[in-house]
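Sorry, can you check?
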Amino acid sequence: MDASSSTDSSNPDLPTFERWRRKFSMITGLGGTQEERAAEMEAYHHKRCEKWKGELMTYSPAVVFMMKHLKLNGCDVSSDDLVCAPCSVNRAGGFIPEAGAVMLCQDKFMSKSHMEDTIVHELVHMYDHMKFKVDWNNLRHHACSEIRANSLSGDCRWSREVMRGFVSFSKQHQECVRRRAVLSVRANPACPDQATAERVVNEVWESCFNDTRPFDEIY
């Protein structure tokens, strides 16, 4: 029996009790070795990620809209371009310009709506990369795409900010977009310090925040 079949708690070929035992072990952390529990959890996260991804690419208005406009700009996004995989970093996803693909961190999603926002966010980056020829080593380019992706994806809706512990009743959306854009630019290896990240975001803020393409308005 190969490794994948031996760790799949939903495998119909396993006896009912064994499938139940493995699922119980995965949820509670009791029973089995640490490696077995980790493999079970990874298989569970991957299966859930692939399921949600397929549903969102078919039924999510925002994801379908972004895929349509990417196709109009010469980029026909398929399921293979959105890759579910475990991630060591504390983020939900990322756009990989060299591969023209989106990484979905399968073990980081709190809900399907969280994955939806993440996919839209990364597809905005893909759209900018295709349409505007973004140079990701240019901090102004990077800042502009981060402002747009955070603003247009749903990442900064009020309910999401409350879950993060940020509560504001005045310009909450703008504050969230600015804060998250600065964090992303600061993580760019080409950015020397926090002050530079803040300055660059401020320099491009007005034009990039008001640029909602391909949406007519903030989603």
Notes: The radius of gyration is 20 Å. The mean pLDDT is 86. The first strand starts at residue 82 and ends at 85. Strands lie at 82-85, 93-96, 101-105.
